[in-house]
Amino acid sequence: MTSRADYGYDAPYGLVLFAGLALLSATCAAVFWLQGGNPVVMGGYALFFAANAASFWYTTRRGKLVEWARILDAFRLRGDEQLLDLGCGRGAVLIAAAKRLTTGRANGVDIWNRLDQSGNAREVTLRNAALEGVDCRVQVETGDMRALPFADASFDVVLSSLAIHNIRGNDGRRRAVAEALRVLRPGGRLAIADIRAIGVYEDELRARGAVDVRRRRLGWRFWWGNPVAATRLLTATKAG
User: Fold this and answer.
1) Which residues on neighbouring strands pair with residue 155, listed in sequence order?
2) How does strand 82-86 pair with strand 155-161?
3) Would 47 be classed as within a structural domain?
4) Are 122 and 112 in contact (CB under 8 A)?
5) Is residue 2 part of a domain?
6) What's the chain's average pLDDT?
7) Are the beta carbons of 216 and 233 closer than 8 angstroms?
8) Residue 37: inside a domain
9) pLDDT score, position 141
10) What's the structural domain count of the chain?
11) Strand-strand pairing, 105-110 and 138-142
12) To the nearest whole percent, how much of the chain has pLDDT over 90?
């Protein structure tokens, strides 16, 4: 899992919040101890938030890469697929997929919100693709997941990692899932990893006739601090 590219930090405010709470709790514990009080409770909070920060940091810097490698390996790509990554960000999943292609192409689409991912920018994604030696198989577009700039049945595979939940409201999220299914070819496969609204995505896929719809919880490598903030994976196939 070595990488020359830098994929930044997902939801950087979350990592800062956990680290800040750990520091604040540790400071309070130290003050209580120096004043002859009991530092155990605040010390416990410090350890809890520090563990959350460590888990969050690991997931965003490495854990998600490990899990997505396993997801992509399970897809057993031929290498000639046309692939789309919704909310590609700085390209972690997009580039991992491109490395498994030969004559195929990996396309990414994003609105480049830096609140959702640190340093998020189209030029950063393209630079990462070049650093990883797959720029010839990567194309990146600026676009809204709710109105994709692609024709019907354009792709064999559509992926999305921690992106659709950033759309406000379930109606918008349903539109994004519907768009993902629209641009898939019959028999094409879809994989969405997200921390919430997975049930909404699943209902939309089933309502639109997707088959082999499956949902599962991903492991500790994809926790955003603790098991409560675990990532779930939803996969489906577009009916032929």
Assistant:
1) 184
2) parallel
3) no
4) yes
5) no
6) 95
7) yes
8) no
9) 95
10) 1
11) parallel
12) 95
